[in-house]
Amino acid sequence: MGALGKGQDLRGLALKATTLAALLISHPAAAADSPSLKLGGNVEHPQTFTLADLKTMPSTQVDASFGTMHGQEHHVWTGVKLLALIEKAGVKTEKAKFAILRHSVLISGKDGYAVALSMGEMEPMAENKPVIIAYRSDAAPTDLPGLRLVVPNDQHGARQVHDVTEINIQ
Asked: pTM higher than 0.85 for the full model?
């Protein structure tokens, strides 16, 4: 086979590789592997947020230390404020003094583990805790494999839900 034959083989191989890459990128299973969460319940506009959606929103870094079964952990987390996501969905609330403080938020992980927060923990007029849905930690050079609830200033990491898939406003 001459030089021209080899060049044709390489062009054909490049075309096949490009076609395969396009199929992999557009394949629905690839999108299913990317973390996402649904926000619903007592809201005006239920939402679904993908990792890509979260990365387009203003990010917040939270420095959090908490106890675990393996000892104390300390990390800097990057993500989006949970309150910002809730505000995008719009909580249905009655017209009453501080009515938003009557609501709670149930955050669930892929494994079924769930925790509750009060809106008062995140509201600026109350505790104003910078609770985030994190997609990155200083412990890894890449994004986390799933989204994680980070509640700063908790003594124990029990409310640090891994692989968050659902947020339900009650």
From this structure: no
